[in-house]
Request: fold
Amino acid sequence: MVNRIFIVADDHPLFRGALKEILGSLPGEHRVVEAADFDGAAMALAAHPDADLMLLDLNMPGADGFAGLAVMRAEHAGVPIAIVSGSADAKLIRRALDLGASGYIPKSSGFDEIRDAISALLAGDVYLPANVDLEVEPDPEVAQLIERMRSLTPQQTRVLTMLGRGLLNKQIAYELGISEATIKAHVSAVLQKLGVDSRTQAVIRLAKLDPGREPGGAL
Reply:
């Protein structure tokens, strides 16, 4: 009998394999669902809303960076999501936690360290790498953006990420399967909640979440 379901979302097969090996060392029966891109990760989470833990790399193909995390967090609040990343930048860790991540595991961590991190997350704890000083968000504009993003509905958050990818209203409507008029209403609500006057301003602010990410571009 499967006691736990884990989702491992990373575009590198070797690292997914390493995470599966670590998960396999945990006691009890479990199932590991793999995803190699962001769409696959979203589908896996939608198919397993009762998953015990998702290990998510935000740099996968199709990813929307921290905005993508915000969408997953808004739609599946009950599933712990831990970021696995090649970066241990305290600023990025702070933003991941502010947007709802349950933990942050650097890929440079050893086998035992990752295993301990997963065990802590399964116990309901927040896991952070050792010796990380989580200072207050240094950019007031980003801090305000994160706070305002928390007021968005899941659908509004999804629309915001699509604006960030440079999609037009009709393209967003097509992808979400709803009318363009409904999208216009969502865009207006997003702009109002973010405190900006145009979608261009919204996209520019969203890009500030991910250093090195250009407005409308990929990570």
Q: What stands out?
A: The longest strand covers residues 4-9. The first helix runs from residue 13 to 24. The chain has ten helices and five strands.
